[in-house]
Amino acid sequence: xxxxxxxxLTLFGQVERTYAIERAAHERAVxxxxxxxxxxxxxxxxxxxxxxxxxxxxxxxxxx
Length: 64
Description:
64 residues; mainly alpha; 2 helices
């Protein structure tokens, strides 16, 4: 009888683990379908980048 209880608890744990994995996979799929992934690569015009590099920096006076 004790062995049966242990086997049933083990099976219950495996079923819960499987459902948790399936829920997480579904949630990832829904999130991926809702939102488009934005590319981390930014395309910057080289002329604008060179112009910005030559601009003087603004110095903020310290409060000391």
